Amino acid sequence: MPRLINNYVLGTTKYLSVLLLCLLGCVKTSDLVSSPALPETNNTVTSVDTIDDPMSEWFNRVTQGDDEPYKSVCSLHDSDGNLIGSGTLIRPNVVLTAGHCIDDDSIVSVDFGDEKIAVRKMVLHPHYSSALGRVTNDIGLIFLECDSKYQPAKMGCTEWMERHQPITTVGFSFGYKKYSKFGVFRYFGTVIEQPKVMKFIPRPVSVWFGDSGGGVFTEFGDSEYLVGVISTFTILENYKGYGEVTECSAVIVAKHLDWIEMEILNEEMEQSY
After folding, report:
1. What is the DSSP letter of 32?
2. Number of C-beta neighbours around residue 219 at 10 A
3. Which of 94, 189, 222, 228 sits at 20 to 30 Å (Cα–Cα) from 166?
4. For residues 20-45, b (16+ Cβ closer than 10 Å) or e, as one string?
């Protein structure tokens, strides 16, 4: 990661549907999986283990190219064009990202590769904090000046997931968009102290390829869903003296769905004046 971790009269039907969505959380009729429901599992854990794998070369773990399937993931840039982080399109003109990517209000544009759009407004989660080096509620929204031509990502629930379920992380680094190959990262669960953060375990690797604010995706049925926003990672030195990523954290999208929907609704109302 380059940075560690930021029509006023709406129809009654629309308002009530958003309110219902906020109350129900991630159980959205439009996003429900057609396959049988996953069995109930206990995703709360108090320790983290690792999965051994002899493969550790960086480029064996990531894929890049023009035909990549994660078109909704974009890069975030400041006024000098510097790459600051990543984000995921969740509405035609709204990008979801990590709060620490936007906490200094420096982002002026987002780039989808062949489409660059100016930023109109950024909103941090009201309880975002980076005090004492610990980032909490690490999530934020970027409102764009116009709609993107790309399809927004579908948002899903970690409650649908099983422990060690394969996930795909997507982000930018070194000027390139990269996403992990199948099996490199697996969902592990949450810890009691951080109920709004999901932990995912990398097979041993010395280089973190992703970037803050990027998306964590997984499959349910025949569709891919955004379930997390890349937040932080932990590095420990191994016996050879190399830094090794041992634990990665992502903000659980579904835990903040009510805030996301209400901020979007408020913005629509403001823009209708």
Report:
1. -
2. 15
3. 94
4. ebeeeebebeeeebeeeeeeeeebee
Query: Which one-letter amino acid corresponds to residue 21?
Result: L
The yes-or-no verdict on residue 154 having pLDDT over 80 is: yes
- This prediction has a pTM of 0.76
Q: Where are the domains of the chain?
A: 32-67+154-253, 73-152+258-271
Q: Which one, of 38, 26, 28, 35, lies nearest residue 221 by Cα?
A: 35
Question: Looking at domain 32-67+154-253, does it have CATH number 2.40.110.10?
Answer: no
The residue written with tokens 């997390």 in the block is 228
> What residue type is 156 in one-letter code?
G
pLDDT value, residue 208: 53
Q: Which of 19, 5, 26, 86 is nearest to 264 (CA)?
A: 19
Q: What is the pLDDT of residues 223-267, one digit of tens each?
A: 999 999 999 876 655 555 556 666 688 999 999 999 999 999 999
Q: What is the CATH number of domain 73-152+258-271?
A: 2.40.10.10
Please give the Cα distance from 105 to 82 (Å, whole number).
14
Structure tokens at 109: 């544009």
Type of residue at 180? S
Query: Pairing relation of β-strands 243-252 and 215-220?
Result: unpaired
Helix axes 12-24, 257-271, angle to 10 degrees: 160
| pLDDT at residue 62 in the model | 64
Q: Let me know how long the chain is.
A: 273
- Strands 176-180, 62-63: pairing is antiparallel
Is the pLDDT reported for residue 79 higher than 90?
yes
Rg from Cα positions in the chain: 18
Structure tokens at 184: 């490199």
Q: How far apart, in Å, are the Cα atoms of 168 and each of 92, 156, 238, 252?
A: 22, 14, 25, 14
